[in-house]
Amino acid sequence: MDLQTPSVLAQLPRPLHAATGQTRIGEVNSLAEGKKRKRYELAVAVDGEAVNIYNVQTPKLVTSYAVSPQSTFSCRPCSVRRKLRTKSIVKRQTYAAVTKPEHQIKCFVEEISTGSSAPTISSSGASITDSKSPVNFVGIVPSNTVYESENGSFDILAVQNDGRIRRLSSDLTTQYWSIQHSEIAKTASTHVVQTCFLIDLEDAKKGLFKRRQDLASLALGDLPSTGTDEPSILLLVSHPKDTKTVSLESVHIQLFSVPAKTTTSPGGIEESQRLRHLQTIPLPVPAGLEKVNTNNSFQWNFHSGTAGLHFSFENGFVNFDLSQYSPAVSAQFVLADQFTSVMRISPQCVIGSSDSLIAIYDTQFKSVQRSIAPKDIALGPVSSTNGPTVFISYFAKLGLAVGMKANTLIAFDVTSLHSQPAPSLKRSRDGLLIDAIGRGIGSSASQWDMSKKHRSDDMAPLHLKNAEEAETWQKFTMAIDHASRSQKSNLFDMAVLSYFGASESSKDLPHSHISPESTLFLLSRIFTMKDAAVTDKVSASSSSQLRVALWPAKTCEWLIRIGHLSPDNVEIALRRACKPRILQSFPTGSFIQALIDSDTSLNHVNAVLEGPAVIASDELAFALKFFLGQARMHSGVLEETARLITDGEIATPTQELTRHLGGGVASLKHIFTGLNLSLQKIHAQPLPSVVKSLRSLLSRPELISMVHHLRLSLATGGHTSRFTENPPTPITLDQITPSLSLDVIVDLITAAVDAIGPSGWISALPTDNELENGSDAAVDSASREMELIADMKSEVSAALAGVEEATYLKGILREYLRFAHQVVDSSSTTADAVAKIEESAASAPSHLVRCEKLNGADLMVFARPEEGEEGVDGDASGKILPLSLKPPSLDVSRKKVLNSTGEVKTRTSREVGYLRRKAAGKYSFERLVV
């Protein structure tokens, strides 16, 4: 199933300096009574342009703050929105750190009062003079103050790369302290702070400190556990300096407690009162990840609810559970593909972006849940869609994963990931095994592309018993791939014949015991998914269409004969070939349309329709729609050409037909052959599904055309005329080839009438306005429709009378037919039975005079026997049926059925011998001539 096409939230301004400028995006929080809540907004800082606030739930620009053209932001901005109790004012304060033109932290304050139409915007800044290291984190430290002052009930915490941490007031007028903690100073010469996270103690108790009550008590210090300003938890992640790769053993994870309030003392404040060190956490090293590249795709994130610290890099995603005494790897998802961005959206799922695929992955079962190709994302002009997709934030309640592509802010709707909505506050479950079955990454492709190390689980589906057969399969796949790339069907056929058959003749290909996996591989090379122009930019459907890449005649004839060339098998083969991308369900008629496009003479589609493969009713209804349209078009052109010839306007009808129909179109013979094959094929489906498919795909005129064609087959087949009458002759024999049986005709006429429905027949009647206007065309059309129903009733009645006559005749001859059927079944082989019949026919004198054909029936006229021959008196002695109406058995059956229970048992040799001796001879009759 496809991931829906993302919606565009906003077009972001480009940095003033395109080569060096960057765009940094942070979160927006609301603050009330010391509690932070994530809002459905994003703060976007663009170098040299502005700091903008965008709403995600209702996409719009909320507000914007301009900055100087020389401004360069060093970290993500943060924004706080509050409602002041003392005044009816909504106050928004947005913070950002800049390195140019000077190192400082800027604050933008916006106040909106009740009754005021325009907001009041002001700005301030705090210069950083004691350190040249850039600021890489700005956050807020809330306090549980009942009375919220106008300046704010929170402080600002800024962290620099060298580990220096400073605390400022919300209006940036006061700096309370600036320290480099002793625990950070120990490694300041070798490490730099990579990223930071501020966590509320209440959230930390539910996740990070769930099993570590000692750390929770240490964070509180001398404060009581309840009814006071709880501190915030600062989590720092430090990396070694100036390295392109990092080892997880050298990464330092440090936890600090930040008090909610600052205290002043004449003798100074101790380090522990400013920043209290709680723990330094060593990270385990997952297998195979001793070194990780720290490029642009490397990023740390923390989820407070599950205490999961996870990092994403170019090859995947790893999550560490920090709530344990010893941190453990709770999720590891590593692929050979290179990702540009990976983001967590649930405990079991992540969304990742690469150059070829954007998908939701199940990290537990290594499967793809949803996917979309980056080229299927149409966001406007081509220039605005260049560049990788980078994920920014996930809003769980909205089910939106927000990302950025070039200068466009986009949102992916991932609510379809859960089959059912979550009841109340309980989250719906994901990451189930049933959702991962058939969606594994590389599972099916590995069966086709055998590696040098042949594993038993890869060889079993292909029925490969040893390494030699695996090598043969590897050579075969290479030959098929070469033939597919070079578009040489003869090489394709030769490779198939050399692997599956003994010679280069299609008759030597096997008819049974063929591994479906091998034929699926062939179908994945015969069919392909090709891009098509998308005109509907709003639609979320994929732009890929099913096409025939190559048509090797002998191979396709063999696949059709064994029933493996079917729409279901083609879809399975292409889904496996396109992994890890998950293809959208093929549109109705895509398989038939691909066959039609591959051969305009319709030989390919007719061959598939004639084969034993099962095709869905919707696909067959699409084929009926196509053939009916082609037949109507040809009929109209033929009538127009005949009129022009009669009027003397043209002298060369062939040129006129070529001009109207084109040179490469199919003939009427192929069109009607495909039409009749489609009718025979769709008759094998259940009648309710046939009616549903006809109603959904065929229009009313097409259904009427189908009824007329079935009526023609009913009449020309002799079903509506007596045996002594000649049935009507069709315009061309191609219309009734292959012939349709009576049950096919009757069932499909019934299905077509039901598909039109009562409303369809009623709508054929002329309206009052048409009658008042004297519209002859509408009246004639309505009269034809009414006559059609009357004609069908009379034709069906005539056919029913013929069926009743045939049933009556069959009742008279029932004993003879039953006896003949038993004789044929009791014959040892068909060849022996035919030989006996021919021997008896050759020995007896033949009285056959001639053979005639009347109304499709074969009549044999015999002469009367002469004197002395058997049957001269009208009786062939010894040729009547036996009294038991059972044919003589050649031997006693080895099986017997108990009359009491119906149990089938095997006779013993003693019982078989007894029955043979007891068996009586044939009944015989003698004539007494007096």
Structure in words:
It is built from 25 helices and 37 strands. It is of the alpha+beta class and 930 residues long. Among the domains are: 9-180, no CATH class; 192-334, no CATH class; 445-587, no CATH class. The strands form ten sheets. Strands 2, 3, 4, 5, 6, 7, 8, 9 and 10 form a nine-stranded mixed beta sheet that branches. Strands 1-31-30-29 form a four-stranded antiparallel beta sheet, with no helix packed on it. Strand 4 and strand 5 form a beta hairpin. Helix 8 runs parallel beside helix 10 (516-526) and helix 15 (617-647) runs antiparallel to helix 17 (668-683). It starts with 6 loop residues before the first strand and ends in a 12-residue tail after the last helix. The model is unreliable at 419-426, 443-457, 534-542 and 874-878 (pLDDT under 50).
Strand content: 25-35%
* Main sheet: strands, sense, barrel: 9 strands, mixed
Please report the total strand number as a whole number: 37
**N→C terminal distance:** 91 Å
The helicity comes to: 25-40%
Question: What is the overall number of helices?
Answer: 25
Q: From the alpha-carbon coordinates, what is the Rg to the nearest angstrom?
A: 42 Å
Helix/strand-derived category reads alpha+beta
Uncertain spans, ≥5 residues at pLDDT below 50? 419-426, 443-457, 534-542, 874-878
Average pLDDT score: 80
The best one-word shape is elongated
